[in-house]
Write a structure and sequence with these properties.
It is a single chain. The chain has 358 residues and is α+β, with helices and mostly antiparallel strands. The longest helix is centred in the last third of the chain and has 22 residues. The chain is built from ten helices and 18 strands. A hairpin with a 4-residue loop joins strand 12 and strand 13. The chain has two domains: 249 residues, Metallo-beta-lactamase, Chain A; 96 residues, Winged helix-like DNA-binding domain superfamily/Winged helix DNA-binding domain (Arc Repressor Mutant, subunit A, Orthogonal Bundle). The two termini are 37 Å apart. The N terminus and C terminus are likely disordered. Strands 3-4-5-6-7-8-9 form a seven-stranded mixed β-sheet.
Length: 358
């Protein structure tokens, strides 16, 4: 998932389609590559999926969330688009519910293998098993340390164990894919380029001879993919991983057509990479400035400095995770230090300031 940026990017994507396919239909991107769009029950209300003609069949890329509406849209696609050819394989870019949500259903329906990165698969399987009883303590400790209290803290329980309700059961086996793997699909080679930070081992797919990059959530044309710290790894620095992994895409030609999971296919990959980097540099500066007072700042205080618009509860949890990601990267860079006060709340201080007694 992603949050709209809080700044005006300089990059203006060059979109190559006028509109988007309705749910249940597929549009040709180039011969042999089809674009589908499925609904999501969030503020970000859609996801793009892809069908790749694969010789005597089809390879699907990503699935949508597990709702009856999405299943019906898929059934419509199958009735209109398969041209009598079977579905042969499913590739999932990463474990988030809008990407893997119907993997179990599709694998069972067509008796096909699931291809995806191993860490993405195991993370999804573990989150599907998570319950309020098993994870409540870790969640409350994490969000209390970030500065949650009152109404915000009361919303935490509703977040625990929700993952499994948005997916069909994740298959018990996969064909693992990883950085630099080459997958032959319909006579074309698609190379895996791994992205990090948004998820552990996000698989993007690049086809040089077709000039296409299936970028998933790693590179989006308008919104910045969410890069967050989560309760499962409370001291992580995912922003460092995200920024480093963006560099893997710089060697791609400027003419590459990017097929993202949200918004529309676009040209301008290299400019967008610069834009994403500049966005996070600006956010780091803003987060550091929020920590410059004598009392420093909690994660919540930085959230309020970075996200000045009203957020619904769904967006708030992404926003606190992203605020912490910027704070943790500032700690890595030595620009901010973290201290824990007597209540167990983490406070972040710009390093030019002397420590404040708690």
């Amino acid at each position: 998932m992603a949050l709209p940026p809080e700044f005006t990017p300089e990059f203006v994507p060059e979109y190559v389609f006028d509109g988007e396919p309705p749910a249940g239909e597929a549009w040709d991107v180039v011969p042999g590559v089809k674009w589908l769009r499925m609904p999501l029950p969030f503020k970000l209300n859609h996801i793009n999926l892809w069908m790749l003609e694969d010789g005597d069949g089809w390879t699907l890329v990503d699935t949508g969330i597990d709702t009856e509406e999405t299943r019906q849209a898929w059934e419509s696609v199958f009735a209109k688009t398969l041209d009598g050819k079977p579905v042969k394989r499913l590739i999932v870019t990463h474990y988030h519910p809008d990407h893997i949500g119907l993997a179990g259903w599709l694998v069972e329906k067509f008796n096909i293998p699931l291809w995806m990165p191993y860490t993405e698969w195991t993370t999804g399987r573990m989150q599907a098993a998570e319950t309020l009883e098993s994870a409540r303590g870790a969640f409350h400790d994490f969000y209390k340390a970030a500065g949650f209290e009152g109404e915000r803290l009361a919303q935490v329980d509703a977040r625990v164990g929700r993952y499994g309700s948005r997916i069909s059961p994740i298959p018990a086996s996969i064909r693992r894919i990883r950085q630099a793997d080459e997958i032959e699909i319909g006579g074309h080679i698609w190379r895996v380029i791994e992205g990090n930070g948004h998820s552990p081992e996000h698989a993007c797919l690049y086809c040089a001879d077709m000039g296409l990059l299936v970028s998933g959530d790693q590179i989006l044309p308008k919104i910045s993919p969410n890069v967050s710290v989560w309760p499962a790894e409370p001291d992580a620095d995912p922003l460092a991983e995200f920024l480093a992994s963006l560099e893997r895409f710089r060697p791609l030609p400027s003419t590459t057509l990017v097929l993202p999971s949200h918004n529309w296919p676009f040209l301008g990959l290299l400019e967008r990479l610069n834009d994403l980097r500049d966005h996070h540099m600006e956010r780091l500066d803003a987060a550091e400035a929020a920590c410059a007072g004598p009392d420093g700042a909690t994660g919540v205080a930085v959230l309020e400095a970075l996200f000045r618009r009203e957020l619904d509860s769904h967006q708030m949890f992404f926003a606190i995770g992203e605020s912490l990601a910027h704070l943790h990267h500032l700690v890595t860079l030595g620009r901010v230090r973290r201290e824990t006060d007597a209540r167990g709340v983490h406070r972040f201080f710009a390093t030019a300031r002397a420590p404040v007694a708690q």
